[in-house]
Design a protein that fits this description.
Layout lengths: L3 H4 L9 H11 L38 H28 L3 H27 L9 H12 L9 H21 L4 H24 L8 H9 L5 H7 L16 H6 L2 H13 L23
Helix pairs in contact: 3-6, 3-7, 4-7, 6-7
The structure holds zinc ion (ZN) (2 copies).
């Protein structure tokens, strides 16, 4: 049975004194209780499955397969059906404002959803986690070799989210709904599916990206290169949103994820990976990409 002192031990490898101070103040825990060891730790990431830099150039794991293309096509079809149903319903009703507002809400909430999901798989679980184990492993590999995402082929990069969107949205498309509901579904699911493409562009070099993409990044419509670069720097616990990044300032400023991490820690004893030292699995290795 676990003693009160071990149950309430705070994590000892927090990234900064500032964080420790804030946590102790928020929880009114005296500094003396902050000792090493204690509660269970979230699974340390296994050695990343992504290919090492030397193997990147011709690595088959970065190529798209017909299965990848099939899932991305199915996801796009699900989004297209929702968009067409929304347009048809809007034409029939003569109402445009509602679906446009719903589409804007879908775009904004997709950014928030991408952040929550990214935070979850960056910090908890491992390769053996049901359903999302492969995504967790892939994101750990991404933290180690971030630039490989720019060499990943389109369908290879999007197929996991394409599959999720296809499975979740196609049945929903079959139900009758008003223009606003279908507009929300189409934009939300579309942005979630393409968030990995926006993410890849955020790792791109400005001179190599299409001018329109750079313009959208600079306007804040898509996640910017500058903002996402901060996610890959210590203390590795912010800027999780990867659609537009519009939520990042709010979430990081109000320490929303840190609060959620504390709730999970005190409820279950599981620490997020971001509380650990940014050792090998988090730290970017030398970039061997060509100029
Ligand atoms: Zn991440
Ligand atoms: Zn990234």
């Amino acid at each position: 049975m676990c003693s009160i002192s071990s149950r309430w031990q705070l994590p000892h490898k927090l990234q900064s004194r500032r964080r420790s101070r804030i946590l102790r103040a928020a929880l009114q825990v005296p500094p003396a209780i902050v000792t090493p060891g204690g509660a269970a730790v979230a699974d340390r990431p296994a050695p990343a499955a992504s290919p090492p830099p030397s193997a990147v150039a011709n690595n088959q794991s970065l190529r798209s397969t017909w299965q990848h293309r099939g899932w991305v096509t199915a996801g796009c079809a699900a989004v297209a059906v929702a968009a067409v149903k929304s347009a048809a319903a809007a034409q029939e009703s003569g109402l445009l404002a509602e679906p446009l507002i719903a589409a804007a809400a879908g775009y904004l909430l997709a950014d928030l959803g991408s952040g929550v999901y990214h935070w979850g798989i960056d910090n908890y679980g491992g390769a053996a986690t049901p359903l999302v184990g492969a995504q967790i492993e892939a994101f750990q590999g991404h933290h180690r070799w971030p630039w490989t995402i720019t060499r990943r082929e389109f369908a290879n990069n999007l197929h996991a989210l394409g599959k999720t969107v296809a499975v979740a949205l196609l049945p929903f498309d079959l139900f009758p709904g008003n223009a606003a509901v279908h507009a929300f579904a189409a934009v939300f699911a579309g942005c979630i599916m393409f968030s990995q493409q926006f993410h890849a562009w955020a790792h791109g070099t400005k001179s190599r990206l299409p001018a329109a993409v750079v313009a959208l990044q600079d306007a804040g419509v898509l996640i910017s290169r500058h903002q996402h670069a901060a996610h890959h720097r210590a203390p590795y616990n912010g800027n999780y949103c990867i659609v537009s990044g519009v939520w990042n300032e709010f979430l990081d400023g109000y320490k929303v994820f840190e609060a959620m991490e504390m709730v999970i820690f005190f409820k279950s004893g599981v620490r997020p990976r971001s509380w650990s030292e940014p050792e090998s699995a988090w730290k970017e290795e030398d970039d061997e990409r060509s100029p």
